Amino acid sequence: MSTSEEEEQVETESSASSSNEETDSSEGGDDEVSDEDSDENFIDEEPLLKYRRLKSSVTEILSGGKTTQPDSASCLSFHRSFMVLGTRSGALYILDHAGAERNKIVLHHARVHDISIEPSGQRIASCAEDGKIAIIPVLGSEAPLIHTYVSPIVSVQLDPQYSNKRDRVFVSGSEDSKVRVNRRGWFTSTENILDSGEGRVQIVRWCGTLIAWANDRGVKIYDLEREKPVSRVDRPKINFSEHEDVANSCQCKLYWENDRTLLVGWGDCWMIVKIQEMIPGSNTNNNNAKNDNNDNKVKGASTIDPSKIQLTGRITAVFHVPALICGIASFGDDVCLLTYSIGNEDDSSTDDDDSDDSNDDESDNNNNNNNNNNDSGDNMNTPRRPELRILDRETGEERSCDMLPVFGYEMCTMFDYSLESDKGTVAVKQSSGNSGSDNNTQNTTAIKMKSKDDADLPPLPSLYIVSPKDIVVATPRTVDDHIKWALEHGQFSEALEIAEHADPPLPPSQYQLLATRYLGNLVKTNRFREASKLCARLLRHDKDMWQQWVLVFHEHQQLREIGFYVPYKEVQLEQSTYEMILAAFLNESDDAGFRHLISKWSSTSRKINDNIQSSNTMNNNTSNDNNIMRSSSSNNKNNNLQDEKNTSATTSTAPLFNMIIVVAKVKAVLERRESCILRETLSYLYMINQDEEKAIRQYLDYPQNSKSVGESPLSITIFSFIERNNLFHKLVTPVGTQRFTNLMRINEKRAMQLVLKVPEDVLSIHTIGKQLQAGDPALLLKYLHTLFERKKKVYNSDEYRPWHIAQVSLYVRYDPGSLLQFLKSSNFYSMEKAIVDCEQNKPKPLYKEMVYILGRLGDSHKALSLIIDKIGDVKQAIEFIEESHNDALWEQLISKSLTNKNYVSGLLQDVGSTITNPAKLIQQIPDDMEIPNLRNHLAKFVSDYRLLLELQKGCNEVLKEDCIDLLQRLRFAQRSGVRVKADATCKMTGVTFHSNTNHHINSQFSNARNDDTWEVEMETGEITMM
Question: Is the peptide bond before 229 cis (omega within 30 degrees of 0)?
Fold first, then answer.
């Protein structure tokens, strides 16, 4: 019989939902018990533990075999490689962690009370009711050491370094209240009494150099290395006054978490004792008491003499539970208790409910209390199942409480149960097959779900509940258990989160089961969008699962929902699958989605080997609307099979979908309805196949606009395609097409950038202009305006005069604000026609532009009249007169302004510094005209005029000084002597300066350098160096 077949799953029950109505049928049989067996035991939260019975050889030991008598378990101890079971008959069984017997040792003749295994696993110590202590070597032929005492030995502990030290030490406690330390050397053996006279020793536990034991008065801790007592913890008071006899007989339970933390459980009380270092006479201990995060060590202890450091114990937590403690152990950051209830919990809960009723009188309460006491007394002899509780060590809050249906609990009392922990050295592996299997082996690595906070935490321990006829193993729930529980309770997202963070990762079969349950639930509730988003996380790289779920979505006509999430790189599905999804988008008029998929899928290729795989399953489930696609796809696969014979399968690639089928489907849709997006996508497909003419014809022979197309996700655009393949000529051929016009409608900026790169001999301005003029005059203006700004040297010429003339009309119609700048910069438009166009503009003529044109035509008086009569801007009129340099216009401006007091006010304000005769303007103002702010205007007028006179005077003085300075510099230059070369020649006469005629000149330059050459102008006397 294999180990997995011998283990049995134990039914776990929440204490909150347990009742006395349970039947004994839950005890017997080897059938697994699931959470669905009882509707009344509904658990809102996932249990922390799962349970199984330790079977294999344990069953034969406790129940009896064909040749053996049944025995009863009394104690259990663990090592990372094996465990040792002690029985009431005095036998010791060495078992593997699955419960299979390795060896049987019989050295005692009465109940074995305690077993201690050396950490190295070399020796085992046991003690029994017969007063014997046996130290047994696990391997080798060495004989066991037997120590015999008169009084029964209750507990024994080996030195953790027993086999490595010269003196081999063990500690024992007996019913005669003595705690003994035995030392055995090479030649001598000694026995020291550490404690005596305080009642029966109940338990002894050793960790590091510290020994803890409990007697009737309390718990003592002793430092064996320093040979000094560390601390004493008095026996706690138990809150079961109605069962004082039972409470007084409770046994203490000790558990060392490490050499600085001791867990104590006694009666209904449990506590945590911290061992701290201190220096006598200092306040170090007090400081430590305030801070538990200092690792229980004295600050600066490395610089202190170790002999001066003492250890002391401090109780950091004390809590009570409503039951008696049969065992205690740590469970990660929590504490685990094995308890036995001696009160009637149902009656207690009833009392709590009744106490809320404010109408109950005192007599009723007294009657209820009496009844409860009677019930509790009767319940004392009622067999109780033990409970395994997980409690928070900081708050004492109960996190979990499971009632355990152990075999033979009817014949057991609280003294028959014990709790042992493997301290995480033996962990449970998740099932690699069916997640519902609970037949897990025990000697394998635990599955841990790591997070940022607990990535380095050790695995949680397995807990062993020992009873006379049964050993129940409580193990932490594995990833499989978490997922199974979440799925059974409809918590699918939590199950997925657990699976994704599992370490090591779950096998594909587990993900398949999770995907089937999760996605099946979403599809059943018509949440297809949510299901499609989760497909990537659930199906991952499983091609078969992807194929299966695409078919499920197809059956529900929801291919559009899953289409965007279908893999196409790491995992590639059947070719017909992609074609079927594309057909669904086309049939449901989701053109943007279709384009998006084409953009993604066309950028990836598949190997031909993948492309020619059979897709009969997919074809059989495709709707009638896709019959043509299926037929064409089949033909294409046959062609690919033939081509594969001539092409290397490892290097040849093919698209994810059949291009011919998809193109035919798009063309069929375009025959029924027009779609700019589909036109663009069809053109893109032709671009991929390098079919230049069809690509441009599909895209540009039909009206396009950016709003209908939207932002394109396609990797190849019509602009890059034309530029890369040098297809600029196709924008204007054949004659009569509007290809460039449609290109401008798609994206004006990119179209202009494209056409500006083209030489004139490839795309002439006349050709494009005629096309735009026939197609869209507004686009023609944008094109001409761009040419005028970006190619002014080429465009601003007489060759393009017709377009300049047309451009004026287009500016008047579409962009009047840009006309004036064009009029000032261009010299090739008809000013007469421009005047007419500006004058005929609706709803208002363009007077500013007309003023500019009239000014260029020389009709300044008419232009000034427009400014005054139509525009009404005196300041502009003054600027116009200043630019015209025509003083006669001042007379016209003054005469027209005298009829309007606002004009006069403007003249007085603005022309003070420009008018040649301001007095004349003032004299012509009618006496009866009322001018706003006249005084201020006159004051400014006079001030500006005076400033003008002063500036003129200053300028004249500066000019005079400059003239005098220049004349002085000229006179000085003419009178100054100049050095010339000795053989210099006069340009006019040709006479050299060293001749007799010019001897006096030559003597002046006798000291000149030989390499200097000078030129003398004889008329002016100016000499310059050549």
Answer: no
